[in-house]
Request: fold
Amino acid sequence: MFSWDGFDYLEMYVGDARLAAYFYCTAFGFRLVAQAGPETGMQDRRSLLLAQGKTRLLLTSALTPDDAVAEYVKLHGDGLKDIALRTSDAVGAFREAVARGARPVMEPVILEGANGRLIRATVGGMGDVVHSFVQRELPEEDFMPGLYQRVETSPSPVADAFVRVDHLAICLEAGTLNQTIGFYERVFGLHTSHNEDVATERSGMNSKAVQDRSGNICFVMMEPRNRDDSGQISEFLALHRGPGVQHVAFLTEDMAAAIRRLRAQQVEFLETPDAYYDVLEQRVGKLDEDTSVLRSLHILADRDRWGYLLQTFTRPNVSRKTLFFELIQRKQARGFGGANIRALYEAVEREQARS
Reply:
């Protein structure tokens, strides 16, 4: 039986780790906390670890043209490569996942440090994405002892915008959703918690969410309704050249404050039609927030049987427009804004039409 304790880190392969780090620190409020490269014994790559709240974002770029990172970026552009899962038994998780059909990528390794040790192993996931299993028996500040050096930096003015990763949204090829969901259920011990089908004038999608028992590990997976679809998922698959992570959702405790802070750092968000807010209270009931504030900040709202949530989405963060962020605030809600999926879908299609 698998026992997960949330996402340990997200690793992005990027063209230039230093430029990417400057962007994510300046715009989104991350701070640099550790680094690796030739000076630490990592000869062919440079990796910079950013942190905010409980989120770790690892940015890695190649220093040689034949490195696997360079090959990934050439094919996919900047994108999420490793979605690391924290566990109390990395060796056991690796063996169990491989026994259930996962492709082994890296056998368990032990990194010893002055303050404890870390055990890490890696298996293949969907597309070119991998999942590392991380067992930490050392302080949070010691990322990977012997490989990364700590970096002392000042906090960002928007350092409190995010609490942790809420979920990741993944785009899949048409006809592969059920197979991929089955793989994640079987190999990682997740279960399907939600499903949603959406159709618009231009396109449509099928989606399902898989989670662990605690809800701290969650993937929302989406596929076009057919191979001739011309919508946002098909566009992602064409630009990304295959399946991958379309967006990362960050949990926030104060949506309005987070948006204002990020806007002040020049982060741009998708817009929502005014008509959406004309019937918002009729659709979701009374909210604690003033509708005029939600309208001015383009915040979406949805309600399920447990409570309600607020959410909004940034414009794409990378050159190929294959990655963006979601901000989500949960007021007891456990869903993912099912009624807003159509609104998001149409908002992204408006963005496509603009560009």
